[in-house]
Structures are given as structure tokens and as C-alpha cells.
Amino acid sequence: MNDICIERPPQDEAGCTRPCRYELRFCSLFDEHRGLSFPCDQRGQVCIDELKPQERRNYFFARALVGHDFALPAVVSYVA
User: How many domains does the chain have?
Assistant: First the structure.
């Protein structure tokens, strides 16, 4: 994984990123090849309105299972 991001991504007036260079990653506690990730800002805030319905369900699923199936999420950068 990459280091935690400290740069500020471009944001629109609503505070949502475009295009996102950061993602919030929920890594599985049991399988290192399994996990979920979602676009976010450098603070780890996900703009839920920009997620597709299935992504939104997965995001809430991952948040609900932190400590059971997923580790605490980490904000990571990626090359767009």
C-alpha cells in the first residue's frame, strides 16, 4: 500500500473530489487479496452522492464490518 496522503485533491463547491486521487481502503482481516476501496478526499471523507448504488451498499457494508471482517480503513493515494 501507499503512504497516507497529505496533498489536497481538487474539489468542487460541494466538497466532492473530481477526479479522485485518493481512496479509502478497507482491507480484509482474513484474506490479504480481498478488500474494498472508495474514492475520497485526503481526510478519508467519501462523497456518498457520487457513488453508484452498489458502491454505496458496499461502502456501508465495509463500515459496518470494521473489526469483524475488515481492518480500520486507510487513506491511500494512487496515480490517476
Answer: 1
